[in-house]
Model the fold of this input.
Amino acid sequence: MWSYIAKRLLLAVPVIIGVAFIVFAMVRLIPGDPAMVIAGQAATPEYIAAIREDMGLDRPLLVQFGLYFKNLAVGDLGRSIRSKAPVTEEIWARLPNTFRLATASMLVAASVGVGAGIVSAIRPYSLLDAAVMVAALAGLSMPIFWSGLMMILVFSVILGWFPAFGTGSLAHLVLPSVTLGMTSAAIIARMTRSSMLEVLRTDYIRTARAKGQVERVVIGSHAFRNALIPVITVIGLQTGTLLSGAVLTESVFAWPGVGRLLVEGILTRDYPVVQGSVLVVAFVFVFVNLAVDILYAVADPRIHYT
Amino acid sequence: MIAQGTDATTLDGHLYTDSPTASIMEHMIETLFSFEPDGRIVPKLATSYTASADGRTWTIKLRSGIRFHDGTPFNAEAVKFNLDRVLDPATRAAFRFLIDRVTEVTAVDDTTVRIVTNAPFAPMIAHLAHSGTGIQSPTAIRRLGADYSRSPVGTGLFKFREWVRGDRVVMTRNDDYWGEKAYLDEVTFRAIPEDGTRVLALEGGAVHVAVRVPPRDIERLEKVAGIRVDNTSSLRTIFVAFNTQRPPFNDKRVRQAINYAVNKRAIVGTSSPPTGALAGTARISDAPIAPNVQGYTSTMTYEWDMDKAKALLAEAGHGRGLSFTMHHPTGRYVRDAEIAAGIQALLRRVGVEARLVTMEFGTYVATIRGPKAIDEIQMGMLGWGCITGDADYGLYALFHSTQWPPNFNTAFYKNPRVDALLDQGRTTMDQSARDRIYKEAMKIIMDDAPWLFLHSESQVTGVRATVQGLIVHPTERMVAHRAWIRR
Done:
């Protein structure tokens, strides 16, 4: 197991380098002169030239690339061009918020999704099943910027139950995490349902029932545990979706996280911020994938890693 | 609690470039002079000034007995330190250009500062009223270095308390303020980027003020009890520059014809109830600069006249139609893309086909100011906020022939008479003489029509009815200096 984890960690290195390379190339492929955008309306050509020099944009691309990697190797993501603060500092200030949101959303998605999926699977093709599946389809189809605004309108403006935006108390977390978790909950529900249905048709479930085992145990420990593998895969994949969905959710709910930092970075051509944020998200994604693979072994003793 | 679209970029008063940050800074940091909402420029940290006869030496008297929030005394040395810091190219002060004609700043005695410029420069005092030249505590700047941008120290009505990145800046009342103290205990600026959320936060009562209410929400919001919608004119003028150096727009008649063909009333929406892309929230330009700018006079408008447009086009040899491209940004100015489409539709009615090239602003601004702009751009939409409130800034940068791209004369306009007048306006010290000079210059510019003159934008702000005394400044700043909340 440990050698497997070490191997996977080593394999993550080229992935991260690849991402770093792609991000570097991508931000430079966006048309438009970042120095001009950052300098603002009134900037004189001299000021723009000075900014360009600060950003190292006056140097050949290869030199820029070399410097970028050299700094990256020692964990230096550069300084934000807009705020002039170190990018690592900008990201650290926001990363806990993004984690909080992603974790809460994942909890919402997993509990609602798995719960709804099991309920559907127990009574397949019933009215309840149809209702859950329609709700799942709706959850999947609603764009975050719309559902988010609706949540604010209903639960904040009309009912006044939860704050509409920003961070602070636990209550601040409710609306954004439910909005963000909804889409993933829908996918997880559908996956749980089909996986459960498949397992419920197997011989060992019939055997368990024939033995006179109570239904709760049949569903809970015999069927569910075996149906869990594809569900874990989906949950793992959804973590990536949650991180990218966070970009939208954070904007709608004015949530000060990495996603919004990224959006603002792109809009203002703040190269170091864009590079840094994408790298951090990629980093998290790689580790979540690894965690998912390890969880397989926990859920299914037949899976061994060597 | 005030909700803006973006968070502060930096809290160093010399380094920011955007107006949301300026709104925050002006609560903590003060300038030598102040630009009042009605366009007047009055002393603030200064008490008076005199200019030498040649217009190159300015002697400024300062208020005495003022201390920065950290206890450092405010004096001539502090002013010198700040102006020198802005002038030092290594500081990278974005608004350095406002005072870049200054060659020397001297602290004559504790309450007197002398500023020498390399040429007579009439807008000097207006430029010292811009918050980019604010006076900050020299002690704090020296002590904190780069970290100063996270804990600003000024002399203003409010003191810095905390900055939660991406979320909010909180300030508390300065009880040692040198003048009449603020009424509010605390002012918070929150960043809520999504328009819909910002408006909902106002409706739900979570914030007291929401800036930039989108035109589509105005009518609805006005009907909500407990909320009022303020419509304040801004100093930002929106226009489409013609490339006056290349056909077809090197012909004045074509430029005038386009001006006649575009019905600005339809765009601004002056009918009642308001219609049009802007729902009545803008003011049709009757000069190249907005009202409230010192030097503004109502000059003329091109009233919508399709026959006149057609006749002028025919006279210029385009009787059988004309086609060209028009570049415009999207998402930068209020409803910019919709306005461009409106112009396209209006021009079609006089047989003119404008092909629209839509760009994201970052790309756009690099293109229209790029080295190939003179050959590539025929018409380009742009906005110009005359942030100093002085006509020099609103005209010189846009119409003087030395200011072609990469500067901002994107019309490549060149008229020797206008050049001469703008030079004169810059060096004439007497304000009424300057007004006359600018009046003549604007008359020539309007007639030459290097732009399709559109409108000056309005700032639409949603405010809880309990909020009193809030000022929405024409420079696009929210000023809560004298605001209070009625219970």
Notes: Chain B touches chain A through 49 residues (CB under 8 Å). The two ends of chain B are 15 Å apart (CA to CA).
